[in-house]
Amino acid sequence: MFMQNKVAWVTGGGTGIGRATSLELARRGAIVVVSYSQSREDAESAVRMIAEEGGRAAAFKADVTRESEVNELAERIAARYGSIDLLVNNASVTRHIPMSDLDSATEEVWDELYAVNVKGMFTCAKAAAPRMKKNKSGAIVNVGSIAGLTGVGSSIPYAVSKAAVHGLTKSLAQALAPEIRVNCVAPGAVATRWWQGREETMNALIGKLPLQRIATPEDIAQIICSLLEQEAVTGQILTADAGQTL
Fold this sequence. Notes:
By secondary structure, the chain is α/β, with parallel strands linked by helices. It has helices at 16-27, 40-52, 67-81, 107-135, 147-150, 156-176, 199-206, 217-229; strands at 7-11, 31-36, 56-61, 86-89, 138-143, 180-187, 237-240.
């Protein structure tokens, strides 16, 4: 198995897509590092679930906007497990602001979303890359969004930040080749806890989608793991949206 005993670091790995990816990586044989900023209970719950299924995992706290914390975590991972082989840059945040409300897209909002969604992914990749380069092999998957492709999303800063993630993916793929592959998955609507209380909106969307379904976190996790395994693919943005952008 490709992932057997590979060390996989998943940022925001305790909830949603990150949690599903952590579990799927473990099922494929990886040793999983579930990192979190605030969701400690969720991260530790994911680790317990992995252990119950016979896998290996640990939870560590690190704020991806703080380079010192990211670097310290990368050192701890390498010291404990010997290396970092795979990175899933999943941690991200948003603010729900009507697209037409430009005044509410404040400097604070822009700075917060870019710090986590873009700079945070770069910082984690920069911390993991030397370990991968040393092994002459590694793979990174960034989690983007169709908001970065369409320009429409929960807010303008969010959509633009995800477009930047797509650009970052291509730049890192160039910068880290040939040893490290870098790809991106761009999900559409995903049935995470973000949809709780918004079921009516979700059901209305389903009726407009060619596949007549909303993707699950597990769907996206399968795609992320597949991209990590594909040794002939780099610099690609894979849309996973049940045909929403079609």
